[in-house]
Amino acid sequence: MSARPIGILDSGVGGLSVAREMLRRMPEESLIYIGDSARAPYGPRSNAEIRQFTWDMVNFLLSKNVKLIIFACNTATAVVLDEISAQLDIPVIGVIPAGVRGGLLATRTKKLAVIGTDATIKSGKYAALIHAVAPDAEVESLACPEFVSLIESGDLTSQIAQKLVADGLQALPAGSYDTLILGCTHYPLLHDVIQKVVGPDIALIDAGAQAVNDVEVTLKDLKIAALADTKNAQVQYFTTGAAEKFDAIASLFLGKSVMSTSVEIGQPLLIATQNPGKIAEFEHALGVRGYRIKTLLDFPNFPEIEETGATFAENALLKARALAQLTKNVVIADDSGLCVDVLDGAPGIYSHRFAGENPTADENNQKLLREMRAVSDLRARRAHFHATLVAVSCSKTPLIVSADWPGYIAFEPKGTGGFGYNPIFLVGETGKTAAELTLEEKNELSHRALALKKLLKELPNWLNKEVL
Q1: Cα(101)–Cα(15) distance, rounded to whole angstroms?
Q2: What is the pLDDT of residue 277?
Q3: pTM for this one?
Q4: Can you give the pLDDT at residue 202?
């Protein structure tokens, strides 16, 4: 059993159809709803934008410690659910599979129609899933993007709304379907208008409401449902748009007063480096989690910040705080280096300038090999790479994490990949230098990769903490 909340995300107010069904069937569950009305509708947007915006909402919900996320947006489900689900360690439920099951159960003739946003219809996900289960089914698909804008404006019942819906559905051939899947969670807010247009004999399938069945099963299977007699369940609504507008639509649809909070999500992160190798590692780790990245390559005129700290953490904080003040961005900075046991931890914080001011990587490597000449036993050449990462905002206490990558100093350089001391650092017991690893291997094993994994665990919550 778990009292943690369930997260619901949508491009705007459409996911309220899912929230309403959750409230009706599972009132003991706490809910956190995020609607991205400021950037709605998603349907006409590129897949890259849909991916980015969905990750913004996912990271917001993760900061609220949710136990499960419902993609109450068909567009997000079609474009990016599989990718995001693979990255998370909590269950993610999408609306498309549930809508397909509901439609196939309801149809008498195996003739179905699906309406949705441009992106959902173009993805072909509904038709593909229907045909995977019922190859002989006939499917008509129609994009109705104007419905979303209508609903987001709050116009649900006017004569204009009825005409727009009637005009929009004209393209569906009469008699070509007996079941209409509402393939956008906004559309149930127009349920009565749509039913009037298509007639009483057509079954309307609310894909979002159907998804609640999957939620119920998942909670039970994973034993994370709230106690049935829970009395203190809480429901919180967040919107990226105007709270007053969201509240008016939500209150009308849910039949009770709703007070939402307007929030800003998806702020970019400034990575305090110009090093292409480091940038590649940061982009790999942070990019797959949907964070937007800027680097110092985007700010070529920034002054160089002198690293005068006595520790890795002090140097990272010096860079991050200075850049946060200059840009007002959230800044992630690192300080890293190679620490050799027999040299009492040197080069350590002086790793980048071990051979003097502005040395090449080869000059640093050759100096270290010269200093290790007398150490002939590989076991005595033990060393580790260390990385400290900090996240800094002008308004928050810094987030600090660190990690080590153990190994040995080789007797000669090997490999052409990587940068810095990679050619002379033997990784653990592999017998390979870091410069001989593939980028994929390095992104799993390196000190920076390990520190980034720690950072990613804490970053969503830290980003959404109140200003200190």
Answers
A1: 19
A2: 82
A3: 0.74
A4: 96
Contacts of 91 by beta carbon, 8 Å cutoff, 6+ apart: 68, 69, 218, 222
In contact, 65 and 301? CB cutoff 8 Å: no
8 Å CB contact between 113 and 179: yes
HSE, CB side, 13 Å, CA atoms: give it for residue 211: 30
- Alpha-helical runs (H) found in 134-175: 146-152, 159-169
What domains are defined for the chain?
Answer: 1-266 (3.40.50.1860), 269-463 (3.90.950.10)
Q: List pLDDT tens digits, range 402-413.
A: 999 999 999 999
pLDDT of 42-64, one tens digit each?
888 889 889 989 999 999 999 89
Closest CA to 13 of 303, 362, 249, 233: 249
Helix (H, G, I), strand (E, B) or coil at 162: helix
Distances (CA, A) of 36 to 111, 152, 266, 418: 34, 11, 11, 40
**pLDDT tens by residue, 177-192:** 999 999 998 898 899 9
Half-sphere exposure of 286 (CA within 13 A, CB side): 28
* Pick from 246, 130, 140, 120: nearest CA to 184: 120
Least confident range from 201-205, 262-266, 284-288, 371-375: namely 284-288
Tokens of 355: 């051979």
Please indicate whether residue 428 or residue 460 has the higher confidence score (pLDDT): 428
Question: Could you give the dihedral angle defined by the CA atoms of residues 16, 17, 18 and 20, in that order, rounded to the nearest 10 degrees?
Answer: 80
Q: Which one is catalytic: 144, 184, 339, 394?
A: 184
From the centroid of its chain, how far is CA 307?
33
User: How many other β-carbons are positioned within 10 Å of the β-carbon of residue 136?
Assistant: 6
The one-character DSSP state at 156 is S
β-pair partners for 180: 113, 204
8 Å CB contact between 435 and 422:
yes
Position 304 confidence tier, pLDDT thresholds 50, 70, 90: confident
Helices within 4-46 (DSSP H only): 16-25
73 included as an active-site residue: yes
Q: Which of 73, 144, 339, 394 is catalytic?
A: 73
Which backbone phi and psi does 400 adopt, to 5 degrees?
-130, 130
